[in-house]
């Protein structure tokens, strides 16, 4: 897939205070109505006509737009690779990045990018909109303006938020801690297990103590390979042995995210434990993630989770499903099974609490 490049200097004729790259992948944000009343992709070369207040930011903007905008329901790992490569290739020339993305899978993409770009020391802010930018009540304008402010924010020459985040509805949250929770309201995302990184009011109030910073000597490294031989098994009362075994015996399956109840609990039925045990003995990595948006897996807290730990199920702590899935895909493509088991519940980009 190709993309086009547009340069917009909102500081002209003055000197820009930062260089920010906007990567438009698709989604509701960049839609507008044509002469026939049909929603079509927005021409970002005209963005100053829609957002004249951009001039007040004094930024040197570069817009990279996918030639064919992608509905986020059609996002695949190859699109994550494109986004990561654009950031990696332009990293030295830019002070920060804003990625415009559909909301449905934004948490998956933001999680993936956080693991793909190891040693990141500049902001990568994902945002989008629940209403197109052409709509009078659209949230797109505020989301973009504030995302650009955050992406360009520095203190003593150092980026204030040097990590992958999502900005939506006046809150900045860590990308790999996020989950979409709303489709009809503007507060589309939540981070139940980690504090908000910043809140935007009259001013942007940064919660500096919870912001992730790379090691001083870290250099940016990109991981571009994915192993998608993974599945998710969400438990529910009445789940059948046929259903469980059908998923566990999927051809070429290498890892499974087991979505359990509460703090990591699962049925103690003999057939269930036997099926899980046999799958692990054959080499399947099974990661225990809670169905609850908040809280964490504590295997052994109750008898119904102790059995899972005893047979080799790995605790996913307070990771989101989105983070667990993308992290597994990247780790399995880079390392052998033993190393994946050692790294999967260790923090790589602030995605899990120790």
In short:
The chain contains 9 helices and 21 strands.
The total strand number stands at 21
- The second-level CATH architecture of the largest domain is 3-Layer(aba) Sandwich
Tell me the strand percentage band. Answer: 15-25%
Q: Going across the major beta sheet, what is the strand order?
A: 1-5-2-6-8-11-12-15-16
What is the average per-residue confidence, as pLDDT, rounded to a whole number?
Answer: 90
Number of helices: 9
Query: What's the CATH topology name of the largest domain?
Result: Rossmann fold
Supply the helix-strand structural class.
Answer: alpha/beta
Task: Tell me what you see in this structure.
The chain has 2 domains: 220 residues, 3-Layer(aba) Sandwich (Rossmann fold), CATH 3.40.50.1170; 114 residues, Rossmann fold (3-Layer(aba) Sandwich), CATH 3.40.50. 26% of the residues lie in helices and 23% in strands. The strands form 6 sheets. It has a 9-stranded mixed beta sheet, with helices on both faces. Strand 15 and strand 16 form a beta hairpin. Helix 2 packs across helix 3, helix 3 packs parallel to helix 8 and helix 5 packs parallel to helix 6.
